[in-house]
Amino acid sequence: MRNPLSVTFHLLLSMLVLGCGASTSTSEDLLVSNHYLTFDEVADTRAFFTWNTDWRPMVSAHRGGSYPGYPENAIETFDYVLQHTPALIECDISMTKDSVLVMMHDNTVDRTTSGTGKVGDLTLEKLRSFHLDDASGKSTAFNVPTLREVLEWAKGKAVLTLDIKSNVPYELVLDEIGETASKPHVVLITYSLAAAKKLYSMDPELMLSVTLRNEKEWDRFVETGIPSENIIAFTGVAERSAAFNEKLHQHGVCVILGTLGNLDQRAAARGDQLYKEFVNKGADILATDRPIEAANIIREQP
């Protein structure tokens, strides 16, 4: 039996699906107006990410977002983003020398902290002695969080999409998810169908992000036997056709477009209205380095 989500999390999901709504709406208003989201009906991410015609676009904060004074993969940054908009929080799992799962994108800490060295060569105690740097290299008072801390923080606040780095055994991640009862608000990112099949075999209730950029990749996915209700389709970092996005929708699959990188740069240069064009062509979630800016535009969708 699936564990029900907390009331607070349902309020957040309602806000997400409605594109955050008008600022004058109350939580109760949002729940009443969203006929398919109730306290009892949404028990996990598989239910939440089943696409239907009532879907409203949302953003996923790449590496949790990164703004001046707020470094990537930091709980304080996650909070900062959520103060401005509901968002999925994408973050990266690495492992220390003493086998503690922590949030870090790179193999080394050189770019993102005041320290140096490979993550896998550092103990958690040593890693905690470093301060996180923001994107400009400015040091902050924030430290590297553990996966467990992030899982506990997310309850009632956000859905996490977790990017598992190659040095991290899946078993350890699933243990942490299980011990913190976090499955209802977690999506695991995969980069190959083999990885998706392995995770599905380990727990068929997991929600997975699977890269599906064209018809051939969709056909190969179907051959895996993984139910479409278990996946979100990451369609890459280039726009896909409206027809392909619609095909995914016909199977109840939500579409994540990675605007991080080139598409974000285009939007910053040409105007944030570009984000609307992406969702008008069928992108349901924008995985972006500019979550606040993108959300401000797409929440204006009718």
UniProtKB/TrEMBL annotation:
GO terms for molecular function: glycerophosphodiester phosphodiesterase activity. GO terms for biological process: ethanolamine metabolic process; N-acylethanolamine metabolic process; phospholipid metabolic process. The keyword Signal applies. InterPro entries: GP_PDE_dom, PLC-like_Pdiesterase_TIM-brl. Residues 1-22 form the signal peptide. GO terms for cellular component: plasma membrane. Residues 57-298 form the GP-PDE domain. Keywords: Signal. This is Glycerophosphodiester phosphodiesterase family protein.
